[in-house]
Amino acid sequence: MQYKVTVVGAGNVGATTAQRIAEAELADVVMVDVLADLATGKALDMMEAAPVLGFNAKITGGGDYAPTAGSDVCVVTSGLARKPGMSRDDLLAKNTEIIKEVTTQLVKHSPHTIIVMVTNPLDAMCEVARRVSGFPRERVIGMAGVLDAARMRWFIADALKVSVEDVDAFVLGGHGDTMVPLPRYATVNGIPLPQLLPAETIEAINTRTRNGGIEIVNYYKQGSAYYAPSAAVLDMVAAILHDKKKILPCAVYLQGEYGLEGLFVGVPAVLGRKGMEKVIELELSADEKAALQKSADAVHELVHALPSV
Fold first, then answer.
1. Cβ within 8 Å of residue 284, ≥6 positions away
2. Could you give the CA distance from residue 114 to residue 75 in angstroms, rounded to a whole number?
3. What is the domain extent for residue 69?
4. Is 175 one of the catalytic residues?
């Protein structure tokens, strides 16, 4: 393969991400986990599927970061997953230490890589990776909005009984309960969503989108979502490696855009070979601006609460 992608974490999200990337033949994948045998075993299991599925990308796994050297993209999924009753905020201190160590190792072996953060609480973990890596904002991006928007798109398609391929939607803000769905910008084959669904149905979809993660957690009882998150990562990695210049909602370190400064907040951005190449600023109504500010304030509280990094 022309490219190499490292996936840190061999749990459900990490392993499924590695599988999707390899099966799409985007890149060779190195999977790293503190449970080295787990990563090795899952990588071997996936490679034994290669003759059946017909993909030629290679997946390796273990506990050593040396094989990750020269990775084009590093996807970070390691950390503790939420349990029922646990908020993303509860994960802050424990996952900060994990992300500090992971980022240090990734930068040591792949100083020119692009980091795609998946670990929660997402926006705060992006900030940890940015501080530890010293990377410019273009090379530290959070996977949040692609997942949240995908959930919203599915809920819209299901409500209208139409193809998911016809539905576009955007979600702004932090990855959590304060996210800001934008139904005004949602379309179904170009038709604005407010022309297709009543306001109360749209608001129900907004609420379900905000609670999409915890809904899955409550069904699973143990662990959290991984099929949709890994698909969202695949979309981002493909946009970067193939230099698609694709507009995707991602957690981006803002420097004045949307009136916000020095925070990772979910916004539409252009992804290409250099990482995050441009922030797209949407015109927001007064209510939307207020909701985005509220979401940004929640992110600020998390970042302010970060242990010393």
1. 258, 292
2. 8
3. 4-142
4. yes
* pLDDT classification of 1: cutoffs 50, 70, 90: confident
* Residue 148, φ and ψ in degrees, nearest 5: -60, -40
Q: Which amino acid is at 133?
A: S
Angle between helices 145-160 and 199-210 (to 10 degrees): 140
Final residue of a structural domain among 90, 112, 142: 142
Largest CA distance in the chain: 55
CA distance 43 to 29: 9
- Comparison of pLDDT for 293 and 81, the residue scoring more: 293
* Helix or strand run (H / E) with residue 16: helix 12-23
pTM check: above 0.85: yes
Catalytic residue among 109, 112, 175, 242: 175
Q: Are 204 and 245 in the same domain? A: yes
* 167 shares a domain with 137: no
**The predicted structure's pLDDT at residue 82:** 62
Total structural domains in the chain? 2
Q: How far apart are CA 161 and CA 60, in angstroms?
A: 41
pLDDT digits over 117-168, tens only? Answer: 999 889 999 999 999 999 999 999 999 899 999 999 999 999 999 999 999 9
Closest to 213 (Cα-Cα) out of 160, 171, 159 = 171
List CB contacts of 181: < 8 A, sequence separation 6 or more.
148, 152, 169, 170, 171, 205, 206, 209, 210
Residues 149 and 167: their CA atoms lie apart, in Å, by 10
Q: How many CB atoms lie within 10 A of CB 29?
A: 27
Shared domain check, 107 and 134 = yes
Under 8 Å between Cβ of 248 and 242: no
